[in-house]
């Protein structure tokens, strides 16, 4: 077991016992380590449990693994969840108190939510009449505007009485969408927070049960809290319960588009809980030169003088996008050919290099060049929901949803559509039989999946190469691995609970990748690398042109985005940008260096 060495200030935070605590922690200051060390110490000193909340499944696993390395038995006293994971566990146990006799199906994919909103339009004659006269672009706007409004209503916990009497089409669609979801016994991610909030506020006995169960609540990345998450916390840790810890960095608040705001950590938490406040400004991750550059973006963000590590920060302006791509390829090749760099102690490989951009479309031309020069690469992926690669894998997922929830008319329609696609009838029949034969508790799940895999091999033996069958086999192998991951952490198993765990991403098995990693800024949050190349730093690309038009908070978010991007680099930061961009329709526009750069 590796001994954890903490600074004096970090140790004071770890030793802090009862009462509310706010840790304002800069990038690279070891905030997750401090939170984990405090959780470990608290767990050792209480007979009850600790609740730790963070924002990604990856971060949950990191905290669990650190605790496990220290003391496996301690994990029995610590529950580590995302907000949605916590809500799912509450609904599994107590959903009946708010009218769910059976665990609802979680709808998560944007495609499915879009399809359901279209059904809501069709079920509303007054809106359908207008909708049918719109072109495709106009119809999409109606659907996306309605989806955005529904999310806003739920995240702000707006009661029905404040909506009644409104003739706004979006509000009418909200009620139609909600009725459709209820008829299907289905919920979406925003519903999960709202339902558990309602459960805790209307059933005080249930909320008290959780308060008695958890001696302490610790929240990581608290700068990303939104209204629904904070009000859910307040419904659990209300007056009289004060053992709440928040850790976060206001300068890394970059999810305003999802309703998050640093104000819930800095303003509302301080007003509601009167916490003891600690500040961690020391950066143990990045080189002094990189911190100095970051401090020019947000002055005083880091204590650069305390940094012990040296590194390099350099800009590479180019004339065109093609020149920018070629510059990046040359830079990567030069680094790999040298194998050693001054400020990195060991040999360098592709794994040490990350290329970051504000948007994925900026990275796409680089992909082709990496392939052309046979440089291995992969995309950092934060998708929570596994999507089958094959049509037959999709068919299984659709039938599994129907098996669990026969009221699910959406997946019923999808199953019929798949059956018309020219799929392999023999395999589809085997999949139907497999799903029908599944026991509710999933005790025969792996046997059933193995049967489908055997059928695929049998069919494949009679054919020449068949890409669909190859992908289908991989899909069922992956589904099997997800069941194994689920079964390891759940004793009270069911195929319904497994399906929802898949939707929440808690069954995902990490796949080890090697090569240059490509990532957007939002995907890279919470991660780091020795060498970071930040490309596309021309104005209106980064900052995004929409933020430039809006100004104000939107530009503050872009500045935070850039700060996050810069502080992902540990030793070397290279920044590139073109002075011309060619539009898809052929026009060439002159660009300037990003206004955000110092």
Query: What is the radius of gyration computed over CA atoms, rounded to a whole number of angstroms?
Result: 26 Å
The residue ranges in which pLDDT falls below 50 over 5 or more consecutive positions are none
DSSP summary: helix tally = 24
The largest β sheet comes out as: 6 strands, parallel
Q: How far apart, in Å, are the first and last alpha carbons?
A: 43 Å
Q: For the residues shown, what is the average pLDDT? A: 88
Strand content: 5-15%
Helix content class: 40-55%
Structural class by SSE content: alpha/beta
Global morphology = globular
Description:
The protein is an alpha/beta fold and 598 residues long. The protein is 50% helix and 13% strand. The longest helix has 23 residues, at 467-489. The two termini are 43 Å apart.
Kindly summarize this structure in a few lines:
The chain is of the alpha/beta class and 598 residues long.
Topology:
Layout: H1 8-15, E1 21-25, H2 31-44, E2 49-54, H3 57-70, E3 78-82, H4 83-94, E4 105-107, H5 110-122, H6 125-131, H7 136-155, H8 169-183, E5 186-188, H9 189-202, H10 204-213, E6 214-219, H11 227-236, E7 244-248, H12 263-273, E8 276-280, H13 288-297, E9 312-318, H14 321-338, E10 353-357, H15 360-372, E11 377-379, H16 391-404, H17 409-419, H18 425-437, H19 445-460, H20 467-489, H21 495-504, E12 516-520, H22 521-524, E13 529-534, H23 545-550, H24 553-566, E14 569-578, E15 580-582, E16 588-590
Parallel strand pairs: 1-7, 1-8, 2-3, 2-6, 4-5, 6-7, 9-14, 10-12, 10-13, 11-12, 13-14
Antiparallel strand pairs: 15-16
Helix pairs in contact: 1-2, 2-3, 4-9, 4-21, 5-7, 5-8, 7-8, 9-10, 9-11, 13-24, 14-15, 16-17, 16-18, 18-19, 19-20
């Amino acid at each position: 077991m590796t001994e954890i060495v903490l600074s004096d200030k970090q140790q004071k935070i770890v030793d802090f016992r009862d009462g509310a605590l706010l840790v304002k922690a800069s990038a690279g200051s070891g905030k997750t380590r401090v939170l984990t060390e405090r959780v470990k110490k608290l767990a050792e000193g209480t007979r009850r449990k600790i609740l730790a909340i963070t924002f990604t499944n990856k971060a949950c696993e990191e905290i669990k693994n650190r605790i496990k390395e220290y003391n496996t038995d301690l994990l029995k006293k610590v529950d580590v969840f995302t907000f949605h994971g916590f809500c799912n566990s509450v609904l599994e146990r107590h959903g009946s108190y708010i009218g769910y006799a059976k665990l609802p199906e979680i709808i998560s994919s944007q495609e499915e939510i879009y399809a359901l909103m279209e059904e809501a339009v069709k079920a509303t004659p007054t809106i359908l009449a207008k909708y049918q006269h719109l072109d495709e672009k106009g119809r999409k706007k109606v659907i996306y505007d309605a989806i955005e409004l529904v999310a806003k209503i739920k995240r702000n916990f707006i009661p029905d009485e404040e909506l009644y009497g409104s003739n706004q089409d979006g509000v009418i669609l909200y009620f139609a969408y909600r009725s459709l979801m209820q008829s299907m016994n289905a919920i979406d991610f925003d519903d999960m927070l709202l339902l558990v909030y309602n459960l805790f506020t209307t059933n005080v006995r249930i909320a008290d049960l959780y308060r008695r169960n958890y001696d302490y609540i610790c929240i990581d990345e608290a700068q990303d809290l939104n209204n629904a998450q904070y009000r859910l916390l307040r419904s659990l840790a209300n007056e009289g319960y004060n053992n709440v810890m928040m850790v976060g960095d206001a300068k890394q608040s970059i999810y305003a588009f999802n309703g998050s705001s640093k104000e819930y950590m800095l303003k509302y938490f301080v007003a509601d809980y009167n916490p003891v406040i600690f500040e961690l400004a020391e950066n143990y991750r990045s080189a002094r030169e990189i911190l100095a550059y970051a401090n020019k973006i947000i002055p005083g963000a880091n204590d650069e003088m305390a940094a012990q590590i040296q590194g390099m920060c350099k800009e590479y302006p180019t004339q065109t996008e093609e020149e920018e791509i070629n510059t990046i390829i040359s830079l990567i090749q030069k680094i790999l050919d040298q194998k050693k760099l001054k400020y990195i102690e060991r040999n360098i490989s592709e794994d040490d290099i990350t290329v970051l951009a504000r948007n994925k479309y900026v990275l796409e031309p680089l992909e082709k060049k990496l392939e052309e020069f046979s440089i291995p690469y992969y995309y950092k992926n934060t998708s929570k929901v596994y999507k089958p690669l094959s049509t037959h894998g999709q068919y299984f997922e659709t039938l599994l949803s129907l098996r669990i929830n026969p009221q699910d008319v959406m997946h019923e329609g999808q199953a019929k559509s798949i059956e018309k696609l020219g799929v392999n009838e023999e395999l589809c029949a085997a999949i139907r039989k497999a799903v029908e034969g599944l026991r509710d508790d999933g005790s025969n799940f792996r046997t059933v999946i193995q049967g489908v895999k055997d059928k695929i091999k049998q069919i494949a033996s009679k054919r020449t190469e068949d890409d669909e069958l190859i992908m289908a086999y991989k899909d069922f192998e992956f589904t099997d691995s997800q069941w194994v991951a689920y079964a390891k952490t759940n004793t009270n198993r069911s195929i319904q609970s497994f399906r929802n765990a898949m939707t929440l991403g808690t069954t995902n098995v990490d796949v080890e990748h090697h090569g240059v990693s490509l990532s957007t800024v939002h995907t890279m949050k919470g991660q780091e690398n020795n060498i970071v190349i930040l490309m596309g730093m021309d104005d209106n690309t980064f900052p995004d042109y929409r933020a430039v038009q809006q100004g104000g908070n939107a530009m503050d978010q872009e500045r935070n985005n850039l700060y996050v991007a810069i502080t992902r680099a540990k030793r070397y930061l290279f920044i590139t940008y073109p002075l011309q961009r060619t539009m898809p329709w052929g026009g060439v526009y002159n660009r300037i260096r990003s206004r955000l750069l110092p």
